[in-house]
Amino acid sequence: MSAQIVAREIETLVRDMVFTEDKGKQLQIRQMAQANGIFPASIQNLYEAVGKGLHTGFSVPAMNIRGITFDVARAAFRAAMKNRVGAFVFEIARSEMSYTLQTPAEYSAVILAAALAEGYKGPVFIQGDHIQIRQKNYAVDSQKELDFIRGLIKDCIEAGFYNIDIDASTLVDIEKSDLLAQQELNGLVTAEMTKFIRSIQPKGITVSVGGEIGEIGSGNSTVGDLRAFMTVYRKHLGQTLKGISKISVQTGTTHGGIALPDGTMAKVQLDFATLEKMSKIAQAEYAMGGAVQHGASTLPDEMFNLFPKVGTLEVHLATGFQNIIFDSSNFPKPLLEEIHTGLKAKYSSERKKDETDTQFYYSTRKKAFGDFKQKIWNIAPANLQKIGQELEERFAQLYYKLNVVNTRDIVDKVIKPG
């Protein structure tokens, strides 16, 4: 049976699974993946090795896929296989799961199916990004919000998400003068969620857990913030459990970037010195792999080469891939116009004063992946193939710039099936 026929059969299976929400087909895909040498994995061992200085000089791309996930993931796997990339992560945030209509079980199954379709073998790192405590919800009923987070974490781990980023940075209270007091709730909640993860992680697997000290889009993080957070976190975690493997910091970016009225992106002053300091301290003082950069996909290309040079452990990428899809000449114009009409009708209340149509569409079109999910999946195969080629080129560029090319041997050495 040819590879093309196998890929078409898998695509049919994936489509049926996605649009019927068939849990049996989700399980079938996971079993097929395992039978073909593909397994969800924790990146913990690699990050511990990086923290010890055993492997350095690269930054791991963590890629949020919001729509046509099967096609986008296939492009990422193709680029990885051609460049012998082993260190790369697929992720999806709490908010993205909601507005793109992708449950953890569906997302995981689609990613594994993409690996099957491309003939990939080995570990697949799937991550719950920004498993975020919503401050407003927490203020009204903290227990209800934390119970929701526990339920979401449980769903993620059961789906093969063996990498979880807890984001309680929304609970940092900068009105308090003492740094320890500012980070108290953040450290406490992150510790409690780490304990929960350790209590439910599968036998033989240490889930990689991340923490966050500064909400993305707010003021830049400081060394004092990091040390205060870790003091609180360690106090509440105790001495016996393995803690976080990385720390997300704020360095001047915003998620998705800021679109200007003419459609160009606002320039960003990224604080690479902060990244370098945070990574060094995270490694030397807390046995972590290093610091994490969020909101990076819309940064200028010349910045990406700098992340490995300053020791950035992980770089999160999302909106740039979304932009390639919607801005592609191969994305059907009638569907794009229908999406714009739908966005105006449904989200006009979110429109900021003096915001142009271009800015409004840019800030809201991520939600089209959920609202128009089936129509986007139904784009003509020839068009999807061309969009996939554009994405593959971008993935390859990012792998090269983040210096994860030829990391497959390193990953295979330190990451084994659970």
Please give the number of β-strands: 9
Indicate the structural class. alpha/beta
Beta-strand share of residues? 5-15%
Name of the CATH class: Alpha Beta
Q: In CATH, what is the homologous superfamily?
A: Aldolase class I
Major sheet summary line: 8 strands, parallel, barrel
Order of helices and strands: HHEHEHEHHEHHEHHEHEHEHHEHHHHHHH
The helix tally amounts to 21
Average pLDDT over all residues: 92
User: Radius of gyration over alpha carbons?
Assistant: 20 Å
Kindly give the count of domains: 1
Cα-to-Cα separation, first versus last residue: 30 Å
- Gross morphology: globular
Report on the architecture of this protein.
Helix content is 54%, strand content 11%. The chain has an eight-stranded parallel β-barrel with strand order 2-3-4-5-6-7-8-9, surrounded by five helices. By secondary structure, the chain is an alpha/beta fold. It has a single domain, classed as Alpha-Beta Barrel (TIM Barrel).
In short:
This protein is an alpha/beta fold.
Helix-strand layout with pairing:
Elements: H1 3-20, H2 23-35, E1 38-41, H3 44-51, E2 60-64, H4 69-82, E3 89-93, H5 94-99, H6 104-118, E4 122-132, H7 135-140, H8 142-158, E5 163-167, H9 179-182, H10 184-200, E6 208-212, H11 223-237, E7 246-249, H12 272-286, E8 291-293, H13 301-304, H14 306-309, E9 314-317, H15 319-327, H16 333-347, H17 357-364, H18 368-371, H19 373-377, H20 381-401, H21 408-414
Parallel strand pairs: 1-4, 2-3, 2-9, 3-4, 4-5, 5-6, 6-7, 7-8, 8-9
Helix pairs in contact: 1-2, 1-6, 2-6, 4-6, 4-20, 8-10, 10-11
